Amino acid sequence: MNLAADIAMTLLAGAGLLCVVRLLRPCSLADRIVALDSLLIVIVSGIAVQAARTRDGTYLDVLVVAALLGFVSTVTVARFIERRGA
Amino acid sequence: MTVADAITSFCIVVGAALALLAGVGLQRFPDVFARMHAATKPATLGLVLVLVGAALRMDRPGAIAKLLVVAGLQFVTAPVGAHMVARAAYRAGTELSDATVTGRLEPVEPGDELVQPAPPAEHDGGG
């Protein structure tokens, strides 16, 4: 179980790194939203993996809040782009 | 290691691998829409796999309920968010990649075979 959690954390770290690289490369605002959304999902997955490793449900509230906030922020910036242009 | 632990290990590793694939797709694909295609599908499946794995390890029903809430939210909000971003990017005039073959939202030009709609089916009124 610990080995699986370690492997998963390594994979998630690589995914987060790739998302950050996409975020920092010159690209349009929509690209950055997609990258940020993916980064948030990586973070939520990481918290869930840690909860599974420790059998501790303390941080699961953070999971709910992060998932909801990610959706709200994505929609907000999407509407902003639509009004202003990329 | 119990059976539940084995299933948890499998689900967590596969979910994390899907997240990594999403990251690779973000780097490799040529334009916004292709990148969204790469990023949003593993987002749902990968996260739900990780959440299922975590739910199998939890003892209290409250913790499992929270994980189910997150999974349900992800299923509802991920397509809506992706749709909003894609529509905003298209209306803002984001350039399509050169590899794009057909655009269903482009105005149809005469002589352009790729975007011509299929001919309507003949109905003889027999049905």
β-strand number of chain B: 0
Which spans of chain A of ≥5 residues are poorly predicted at pLDDT below 50?
A: none
User: So what's the oligomer here?
Assistant: heterodimer
- Percent strand of chain B: under 5%
Task: Provide key terms for this protein.
heterodimer, A: 86 residues, mainly alpha, 86% helix, flat, B: 127 residues, 0% strand, elongated
Structure description:
The complex is a heterodimer of chains A (86) and B (127). By secondary structure, chain A is an all-alpha fold. Chain A contains three helices and no strands. In chain A, helix 1 runs antiparallel to helix 2 (29-54) and helix 2 runs antiparallel to helix 3. In chain A, 41% of the residues are buried. Chain B has one domain (3-91). Chain B has helices at residues 3-28, 32-57, 61-91. Chain B is elongated, with a radius of gyration of 21 Å. Chains A and B meet through helix 1, helix 2 and helix 3 of A and helix 1, helix 2 and helix 3 of B.
